[in-house]
């Protein structure tokens, strides 16, 4: 399970970074979303992975397994924030596209497909 | 536990939604409430400063959960100072914005402004690393709104760049926090300090990765050399009074570096020893060099001041990255100075830009040239660090603190040479803007087409500006620079006490973790 989660985070991060480097607003926003998914899974894993365990301590069972509840709270916060941020950047990017008729991120003067 | 500590966060947090929901259609009421809230914020922050200046450490446990289980706000000398600085700057910039009617050029300026203040205050007061992330996001999301205030295609495009850059920064911040949590099992700064110091020396790889990632995030916020690319385009394209408020935002990054790398990853912690200073000092020197060259090469007034902000952050981080007590005290003094000087010059830049456009080129004479050029002169002296204003004293303190550093020659050379370059750049700009006579026969602008030009470029029209509030605000900001010079002694002794508290963190740690 650790290997799967780790490689999943890696693939998501790599794909996100590749898309961010495309320098057009749509791929960049998708890339940022992928990056934030990778971050969320990473935060989730920072409390160690334990399957089928509740996020609370059981005082009546000495050897009870449990998952760390704090990363779950952190991930919840991070999800809400990244959701809001994605909404904001979509609106700003839309405003930039509609007023300038151009969806490039960089502000150089060159034109062309990948300028 | 005093409730006063959380008031700087609560006050704007209540006022922002109140303005959105109740006052959104009444501009004058909005202005009254916004100014009132900011005045109250200054009052509260001064009370906090009075409490903190005794050396006491005040904490506020949210929900009464004891640290490290709950979120805790911590008020020590450094955070009290930053809170006062933010509140005073915010009040003056707010008066300028109202006087120049920038707030009427778009929707909900004052609500965003209050949210921005909430994020700034929270970032300075919090004692929890994840809470720091949350307040960073609050101040960033408000700054996105403020940055594109007033609209316009170029401003939106610069806004997209700014948001993308900071979203990547936020992702790195979360990776850093996850790594640190995975190693230590806590995110409370005081608790982290103890856990990190107790880590076995052989098991340092992960925590070092976390510390470096965290440093990267703060370097993005502070605009240190390889990560500064967002700053010039953002500040130059934002409304310039907003950029004046943003002068404190780069200092949030510098503050966070100062806080985390003295309290948690301090210079005498074995597992991360030398990690921050070794990398930060060369980067800070390069940032300073780049900023001053940028000032020399700028063709737009907003961009010129933006590079001035980069240069001042460079100087500040040179002081911080020596990680000694005297250097930190000098850095704290320079932090106050550079925030006020950069903001003042942004306001002057807006006064000029509103009258004759942003290009540093010869143009038609503008109204109130005499007063504006005097303001520019004072602000430029402040930014370049020339006597008699406080920038000179600040740089002198920093260079004095660098005498014991092994890289002393390099630090002195870079600071002195960049001061000269900055001075030349600012003098060149000032003489083009205010002294070069406008000659229509010179081919700059044919006089015959003047009436049409006026229709096409309404901002270029020469019209009397009877508004006095912008001048009062700019003058007030420059007066604070003067006060900082006159009262350099008391301020510096406060800065020294602050540095002492920073490098003896055991009192703060014990207070936060409720140990007698």
Automatic annotation (TrEMBL), chain A:
A Pfam entry, by short name: Oxidored_q2
Domain of life: Bacteria
Keyword Transmembrane helix in record: yes
Keyword Disulfide bond attached: no
Principal place of residence: membrane
NCBIfam families per UniProt: PRK09094.1 (NF006573)
The protein's name in its UniProt record: Multicomponent K+:H+ antiporter subunit C
From TrEMBL, chain B:
Keyword Repeat: no
Pfam families reported in the protein's UniProt record: Proton_antipo_M
Transmembrane segments: 6-23, 35-58, 78-96, 108-126, 132-150, 162-185, 205-231, 238-259, 279-297, 304-325, 331-353, 374-398, 410-427, 471-495
Topology in membrane: Multi-pass membrane protein
GO biological process, one term: ATP synthesis coupled electron transport
Keywords: Cell membrane, Membrane, Transmembrane, Transmembrane helix
Domain of life: Bacteria
Places the protein is found: Cell membrane; Membrane
Chain ranges of the NADH:quinone oxidoreductase/Mrp antiporter transmembrane domain: 128-422
Molecular function as annotated in GO: NADH dehydrogenase (ubiquinone) activity
Functional summary from the UniProt entry: NDH-1 shuttles electrons from NADH, via FMN and iron-sulfur (Fe-S) centers, to quinones in the respiratory chain. The immediate electron acceptor for the enzyme in this species is believed to be ubiquinone. Couples the redox reaction to proton translocation (for every two electrons transferred, four hydrogen ions are translocated across the cytoplasmic membrane), and thus conserves the redox energy in a proton gradient.
PANTHER family, per database record: NA(+)_H(+) ANTIPORTER SUBUNIT D1, NADH DEHYDROGENASE
Recorded family membership: Belongs to the CPA3 antiporters (TC 2.A.63) subunit D family.
Protein name per the record: Multicomponent K+:H+ antiporter subunit D
């Amino acid at each position: 399970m650790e290997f799967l989660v780790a490689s999943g985070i890696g693939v998501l991060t790599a794909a996100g970074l590749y898309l961010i480097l495309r320098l057009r607003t749509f791929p960049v926003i998708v890339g940022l979303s992928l990056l934030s998914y990778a971050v969320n899974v990473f935060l989730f894993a920072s409390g160690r992975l334990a399957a089928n365990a509740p996020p609370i301590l059981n005082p009546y069972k000495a050897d009870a397994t449990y998952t760390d509840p704090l990363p779950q709270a952190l991930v919840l916060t991070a999800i809400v924030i990244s959701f809001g941020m994605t909404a904001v950047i979509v609106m700003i990017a839309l405003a930039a596209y509609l007023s300038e008729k151009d969806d490039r991120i960089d502000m150089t003067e060159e034109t062309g497909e990948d300028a | 536990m005093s409730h006063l500590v959380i008031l700087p966060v609560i006050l704007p947090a209540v006022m922002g939604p109140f303005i959105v929901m109740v006052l959104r259609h009444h501009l004058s009421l909005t202005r009254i409430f916004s100014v009132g809230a900011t005045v109250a914020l200054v009052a509260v922050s001064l009370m906090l400063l009075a409490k903190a200046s005794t050396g006491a450490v005040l904490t506020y446990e949210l929900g009464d959960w004891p640290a490290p289980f709950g979120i805790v706000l911590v008020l020590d000398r450094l955070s009290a100072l930053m809170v006062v600085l933010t509140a005073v700057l915010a009040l003056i910039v707010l008066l300028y914005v109202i006087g120049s009617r920038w707030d009427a050029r778009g929707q909900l300026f004052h609500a965003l402004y209050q949210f921005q203040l909430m994020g700034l205050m929270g970032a300075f007061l919090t004692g929890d690393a994840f809470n720091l992330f949350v307040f960073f996001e609050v101040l960033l999301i408000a700054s996105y709104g403020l940055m594109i205030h007033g609209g316009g295609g170029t401003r939106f495009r610069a806004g997209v760049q700014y948001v993308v850059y900071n979203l990547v920064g936020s992702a790195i911040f979360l990776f850093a926090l996850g790594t640190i949590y995975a190693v230590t099992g806590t995110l409370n700064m005081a608790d982290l300090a103890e856990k990190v110091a107790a880590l076995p020396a052989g098991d340092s790889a992960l925590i070092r990765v976390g510390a470096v990632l965290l440093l990267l995030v703060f370097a993005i916020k502070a605009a240190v050399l390889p990560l500064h690319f967002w700053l010039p385009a953002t500040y130059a394209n934002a409304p310039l009074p907003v950029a004046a408020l943003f002068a404190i935002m780069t200092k949030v990054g510098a503050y966070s570096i100062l806080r985390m790398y003295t309290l948690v990853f301090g210079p005498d912690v074995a597992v991360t020893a030398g990690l921050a200073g070794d990398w930060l000092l060369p980067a800070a020197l390069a940032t300073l060099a780049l900023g001053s060259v940028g000032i020399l090469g700028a063709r737009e007034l907003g961009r010129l001041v933006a590079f001035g902000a980069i240069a001042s952050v460079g100087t500040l981080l040179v002081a911080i990255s020596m990680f000694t007590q005297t250097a930190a005290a000098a850095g704290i003094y320079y932090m106050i100075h550079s925030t006020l000087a950069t903001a003042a010059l942004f306001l002057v830049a807006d006064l000029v830009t509103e009258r004759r456009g942003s290009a540093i080129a010869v143009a038609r004479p503008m109204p109130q040239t005499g007063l504006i050029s005097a303001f520019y002169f004072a602000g430029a002296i402040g930014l370049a660090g020339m006597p008699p204003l406080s920038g000179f004293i600040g740089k002198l303190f920093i260079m004095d603190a660098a005498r014991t550093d092994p890289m002393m020659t390099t630090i002195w050379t870079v600071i002195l040479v960049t001061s000269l370059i900055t001075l030349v750049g600012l003098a060149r700009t000032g003489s083009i803007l205010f002294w070069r006579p406008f000659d229509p026969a010179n081919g700059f602008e044919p006089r015959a087409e003047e009436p049409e030009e006026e229709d096409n470029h309404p901002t270029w029209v020469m019209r009397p500006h009877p508004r006095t509030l912008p001048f009062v605000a700019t003058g007030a900001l420059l007066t604070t620079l003067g006060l900082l010079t006159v009262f350099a002694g008391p301020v510096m002794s406060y800065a020294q006490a602050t540095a002492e508290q920073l490098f003896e963190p055991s009192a703060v740690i014990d207070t936060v973790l409720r140990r007698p």
